[in-house]
Amino acid sequence: MSNLLDLSPQTLAHVHHALHSAGGVRQRRDIFLWSQGPVQTCLPHTLMACVLLDDRGNSVSLDCFHGTVIDAHILDEVMAPQTGLLAELAQHCQQGGGAPLLIDDSAPAHAMTSPARAIGVSLERLTQRCARLELGPALVVSTGVLAGGLSSCFVFFKLALPTAVPPLELARMFLPHFHLALCRSWGAETKSVTPMPLKASVLTKRQLQILNWAKQGKTNFEIAAILDVSPLTVKNHLQQLFKRLNVHNRTQAVAKFMADPVAFGDPGAHEARPALPNKKAKVVQTD
Q1: What CA–CA distance (Å, rounded) separates 179 from 207?
Q2: Mind listing the pLDDT tens digit for each residue in 229-272?
Q3: How many CA atoms lie within 13 A of 174 on its CB side?
Q4: Nearest by Cα to 110 from 100, 118, 119, 122
Q5: How far apart are CA 54 and CA 148, in angstroms?
């Protein structure tokens, strides 16, 4: 491990801020803001995908976070419940003991780990798949199998190399915070009471359209072209919806939208984040 004292004060400040701010991550929207803010500064990436597993290796949930538009077919290949790239990388890491991996098709030796041959062959195939989707380099961080509790795996796709701190070292420092943040978020979603829905009149139909396109990473000019209005009109609508949602920028507005898309009238909200089915399903009989 490199000496942290060799890092610049600015880099140390960025790492400290990312680690310190992890304590405030409680809900899914917090993970979005954290991953696109402090974490993005230390680990510049295009897509973060994560999966939570129980003590038997069954998937509890999977999710992804990104601040730019990503083609739907790429997201499908990454997030497919059983055959997706995320699921296969998580399985590989579970088998390999949870050691962090740096997958880079331009330098495959960095990604290869021991032990045994079967894991290496599997990783070579995953590296090729990552390259085919143009998602490399990718940093894979996993807790490995945790007996009696939840384990997790995080993948940072299209990592911008080189980073100020070697990515494998950042992975080791950040992993406990990633894991706890995901567990808290999942726990909040499964145990919290249903929040009171927002009133339908909070945003206008046009504002909802613009917010939905902003969620997909479209710029004001792109949204204006799609809706056949001027960029200034889009900007004015955004400023109005910021006031109505009590936020200061589009990132915060998108995070609020993602926290409860049903309340905003998003018809695809229930399909936005697929969950991996358990390998063994229990049948409950009722009288």
Answers
A1: 35
A2: 888 889 888 988 888 888 777 877 887 777 766 666 654 443 33
A3: 32
A4: 100
A5: 8
pLDDT per residue as tens digits for the range 27-72: 888 999 999 999 999 999 999 999 998 877 778 888 899 988 888 8
Task: Name the 3-class secondary structure at 154.
Answer: strand
Residue bearing tokens 């145990």: 191
Give the tokens for residue 38: 């402090």
> Could you tell me the strand order of the sheet in which 59-65 lies?
59-65, 47-53, 151-157, 138-142, 101-103
**For residue 47, how many other CB atoms are within 10 A of its CB?**
23
DSSP string, 18-72: HHHHGGG--SHHHHHHHHHTHHHHHS--SEEEEEEE-TTS-EEEEEEE-SS---H
Q: Can you list the alpha helix ranges (DSSP code H) found in the chain?
A: 9-21, 28-36, 38-42, 72-79, 85-95, 117-132, 167-191, 205-215, 220-227, 231-245, 250-259
Of 140, 146, 148, 147, the closest CA to residue 122 belongs to 140
Pair of tokens at residue 274: 């697929």
Q: Measuring CA to CA, which residue among 69, 70, 107, 97 is closest to residue 85?
A: 70
Distance in angstroms (rounded) separating the CA atoms of residues 277 and 73: 21
Query: Domains of the chain, with CATH numbers?
Result: 4-191 (3.30.450.80), 205-259 (1.10.10.10)
d(CA 72, CA 88): 19
Structure-block tokens of residue 80 = 């497919």
Q: Please enumerate in sequence order all residues whose Cβ is within 8 A of that of 26, keeping only pairs 6 or more positions apart, or say none.
A: 184, 185, 188
CA torsion sign, 241 to 245 to 248 to 252?
Answer: negative
Flag whether pLDDT at 107 surpasses 60.
no
Q: pLDDT at residue 12 above 50?
A: yes
